[in-house]
Amino acid sequence: MDFIDVMANARYELIGEILGKSIERVSKPKSFSDLVDVVVLDKYLGIPIFLTLMWAAFQFAFSVSAPFSDAIDIFFTSAADWAKANIPNEVLASLIGDGVFGGLGFVLVFLPPIAFVFIALAILEDTGYLPRAAFVMDRAMTKVGLHGKSFIPMLLGFGCNVPAIMACRTMENEVDRKITIMVNPLMSCSARLPVYLLFAGAFFAGYEGTVIISMYLLGIILAAIMAKVIRKFFFGGEPSPLLMEMPDYSMPTVKSVLTSAWIRTQIFLKKAATILFIGAVIVWFLSVFPWDATNGGEVLENSYAALIGRAVEPIIAPLGFDWKAGVALFTGFMAKELVVGTLGILYGVESEEAIIDAIAHDFNPITALALMTITLIYLPCLATFGVLKRELGEWKLVGLIIAYELLLAYIVAAIIVGIGCFIEVM
Amino acid sequence: MRKVVALAGNPNVGKSVIFNALTGARQKVGNWPGVTVEKKEGICKYKDIEFYIVDLPGIYGFTANSIDEKIARDYILHEKPDVVVNIVDASNIERNLYLTMQLIEMEANVVVALNKMDLAKLKGYKIDVRKLSKELGLSVIPMIAVKNEGIEELKVAIYYATKHRVKPFLRYNDGVERIISAVQEKVIEHNILSNYPPRFVAIKLLEGDEEILKMANFNEEVIKQWIS
Fold first, then answer.
1. ipTM of the complex
2. Range A120-125 contact pairs with CB under 8 angstroms and sequence separation of 24 or more
3. Superfamily name with CATH number, domain B2-163
4. Contact B94 A15 (CB under 8 A)
């Protein structure tokens, strides 16, 4: 035993003696929180309960938000039609109609489900359940070489990887901190949600919640595996133990739930007004220029976008994607929502039919799953990239993240496509 | 006269509530030098003394591994505040006293603010404050800071602590004490880090604290030889 443990024991032993003389403990019936914790923190029930609650959160968000999304969709579709019909300058009409309303609007359709996911998470947070989730996951985490404290940054990663990576500063051990940072981009942030929502909605109607939660789980599992691998090959050592407190359960108030959900939703809206807007304009430009060659976006094959897409195509063609997915993944590096925004523009400018139908034509359930997986894994977005460099301090480690993520994305997608083919043959 | 008072305690013990109650509007928020951890300072006047109050980050221990713990530790060791108010959550007293033990090891002039007495009572704890104070060898002030109970008493205790420095000694079990005193003798003999309390240096060397080992220019092997 290390002396550090000997000292800890000696201190607690003395505290015990002192308290033995100065404190009387009147035995009280177990509090409500204690009783709930017996079940929630159970060795075997803990993780299933956690998964069920998360699944319920997504299913709730998905079903409640559907009518709102439809309303937004109708609004932007008609706005796009109106713009194209009424703006005399055809380039401007295309920019407003296809780029802004088509591309950005298509991303904003996912605002309601995102907001409801935030509400569900805020409820779980305010009741005091989330720290318990951390505790439950700690047992699993330390087994796979991640520190228990890393669960909080990992959980934050479901919102956005940028603050999550910064939250790793609270970790005491430098090696634990670096490993947690390096696998954090695998945690499925809310920017990936539009991609899941689009493809799960188009190909797995009725099972959206299950499909989306499995994406989140895939992220967690991959993060666990990578943490183990990175520790083994680059750092060594064992994760240090976790000390954490459990606040008592409490009834969440409507006001605090709405406030915290609103703060997070606001971030999404701000992003839509800035980087997603700029991204949509860039993608629109790439998809309709050179104007004469594409005949104002009619012949997408001749556009700059197609040029970029075709460059990526050889790599992704074996997975069953065409060049449009290539462009989407390319722009997705700016911000992951742009994967959806880009598909919206590319399919929107080409055909007048509903975008989802168009996507259903080019993808199937297997390639849809593969694309969701790639979006989950392939690269940290630009903002995450910046914060990774700042918090890790070394280009070498950032390079390592990019290398393993690209490789991992490809391998996992290939496995999915492979299994899909196998099932088809059967 | 101006005296420096540091507030130390675990996270979520009501430290900010007590800080606000003591300083009122006379406070300033900045950063600890070189890091992005928030530093709150304020002034509290009592009788002829002006307390300059510094809110240390909420921590569980004094290792040099986390930024927060390092800030708190460096402040206590280098700035040597006249009084350290250790805020203890009475409803989690066992875990909270762990920090108190370490403050005593650092020979800080500690006053314990035993906060959340109401919650402790709800949990069924009956705390004999006078006995606890005697066992620890320092002042213990029971408080319910959110209800403003005990704030005045705390000011009085801080005031007396600035006048009469306490130097409690807590004896751990014999086995541990034997090892500590063996190393402590060497620390004194070799004049190692003589501006820190020798008992604290001895414990940290034994715990293999990287920063202290580096500052003392020692490796753990030497320490092992001392105690063998």
1. 0.93
2. A120/A56, A120/A57, A120/A58, A120/A60, A120/A61, A121/A57, A121/A158, A121/A159, A121/A261, A122/A252, A122/A256, A122/A257, A122/A258, A122/A260, A122/A261, A123/A252, A123/A257, A124/A53, A124/A57, A125/A252, A125/A260
3. P-loop containing nucleotide triphosphate hydrolases (3.40.50.300)
4. yes
